[in-house]
UniProtKB/TrEMBL annotation:
Residues 1-17 form the signal peptide. The lineage of its organism: Bacteria, Pseudomonadati, Bacteroidota, Sphingobacteriia, Sphingobacteriales. Keywords: Signal. This is DUF1735 domain-containing protein.
Amino acid sequence: MKKNIMYLAAFISLVFAACNPLKDEINNIKPVAENRTLTIASTTLYATADAANTGIAAMLNTNYPHLTNGYKANVTYSFKTNTIKPADSVFANIQYTVTTNDYTDAAAAVGNGTFKTYSVAQAAAFLEWKYPQAITPAYKLVLLTYQFFQSNATPSAGVTVTDAFLLLPNGWQKIYLVLPAQYAALGRGINNGFTSADVANLPAYFNTLLKSDPSIVAPKVGDVRYVTYKYMQSGTIMHQKVYALSYDITGNWVPSLTLAFLKKDSKWIPDPTIYYTLVRADYNTIGGSTAGTAAGRGNLAQFGSFDVTGGANNWTEAQIADGLIVILNVKYPNAPVDPGVSYKVTYALFRGATPTGTKSFIKTATGFVIAPEN
């Protein structure tokens, strides 16, 4: 009997050892990824982005010296003034109308072929052709008049439009232009411009315009919009000014911006990430390289986007990365070896609802490679 009890006890122990649900749960526990990004709202006002970079970095070094290298911080702050100073703001100096010859001369860079029309992206590519970022002052502002074409929305000959473009650190970008009808709605339709009497009300004016504009769909917290407007310094002197607003958690466009910082070499510094968005000529460059497949390269050069639909022209993620590295080597041939500097590249996709993609790279001793995930 005693022997039977011992056998039974041994059997029960074996069962629990072989099927211990608590042990299974413990084994299945995965370490939680550490959040290495701070989100901070600064109460200090800054006159310029440069002043904000200096002041916020000092604040982070004082308040967060214990955080290790690799930590990031996104800090939102308000400007003392939200006016972004263009390289030239005199109204008469910043206007340009695309000529018939321009459509032909810039066609290779813009990708409009023989058509005398542009999409918004092509208009931005034209400005990069005419005013290359490498040799053009930052924050150059252009009011560009051109023939705009959009499939199923405009006649084949396009419609004449005037759009505002600003040269930002990541290239030429279309920004928000206050139109005559909007000046009129705000009681400024006689001169189609604002004066010194309007300065205090500009944030409220622009918040109303942006919130009521049907073209601004589903903005996200932290999104930034640059609004350009005519400012009458006197009866004869007019400037085209630029005002920056961010979308906040209350659903309003407010006068604040967010800067990114990085803990590197035991100090907080402005995030050195370099942002670049492919222009039309870049797709032609990749099309002439060895990245991807011959069919994919031909399609890319023809349409200016990476086909990721799975067909004969498909690009895999690795092939897209190879193509982007081709451009990084062309645009940044002398980039130093520094794994702490990320190159964030945005590119066009042919994939229905997701028109763009973004990949980050770093420069190593062997060249550009995909940046490791944090």
